[in-house]
Amino acid sequence: METTNANILIVDDIPENLQILGNILSRQGYNLSFAEDGKDALTAVSQTEPDLILLDVSMPEIDGFEVCRILKQNALKKHIPIIFLTALTETSHIIKGFSVGAADFVTKPFNTHELIARIKTHLEIKFARDIIENQKQHLEHLNATKDKFFSIIAHDLKNPFATLISSSELLQLFLNNDNVEKAKAKANLIYEASKKGYLLLQNLLEWAQSQRGDIIFSPTQLSLNELVSEIILLLENQAVEKNIKLENKIERQLEVTADRAMLQIIIRNLLTNAIKFTNTDGFVSISATEKVGFFEVLVQDSGIGMAAETIEKLFKIESKTSIKGTKGETGTGLGLHLCKEFIEKHNGKIWTESVKNEGSKFYFTLPIK
User: What is the pTM of this model?
Assistant: First the structure.
């Protein structure tokens, strides 16, 4: 496994030692950084994460043992291999070094070839672990995605079809008995169930295409105002049913670089959610602000808002965050996962701010060029 270009932090309070190690390891192609004491070492690791640390033991204020102990207690840093490089050769010191979490112990004066071989070995182990961890996270994501699909198919997709079947049977019965009022009520139920089923299928198909890589990312320069106006026209009936003011506040001349199909899905989902969670006589708006190098788009509503624990789970595929809308509208949360994935395709990010019973703000960024 290739270990050149790895980042190595060398920690020693003697400048001559830093220079010697620097000369040896720079010739191996490693990227080096240096710290002259334990405090500087902890600061360096907090700012830029090295792939391996060569750590002296005898240093003022914070010795190498303590530095190692502190790093191994940090969940984000404990995986960094630490090799103690020291003149201390007593067995008790070696045992202490391993007990605080060191990967290896090399005594001074060191053999250059041995040191390089040990560094290479521990970097190979570290990079192999990184690959395994990435694969593990990928598999966990795939399993969470699969579970999400099964959950939607088993529960969420079944509900509108169950309503369609039972309401259709009753509609036929009422029509045969000339009961027009009850027939109208069932026809309305069929319409609402059909809408829910269609929207759910639409998100499922889009999500499935995305997971298979079937959606080609093709950004172009486009008018954000025009695109939003088209989407608002499609969602107008949903807003009218709840007497919600749906407003496009984006300036007409504003242009963004984006994939049109993906951006339609992003905005459609965010506006649909905003309408769903806004009470009658409320408002939903979309606006955009130019920042340095990107546009910040804001979808804001006067809806029911969310608690902090709900926001924390909002974009996690493995979390069940489905909340009923103000008129009992159901959802799966799949639309938000699509939004996040497509926004990240644009090298953008999405986040939300919300206050319970006051409303929500969903922000996302898009490149200017």
Answer: 0.52
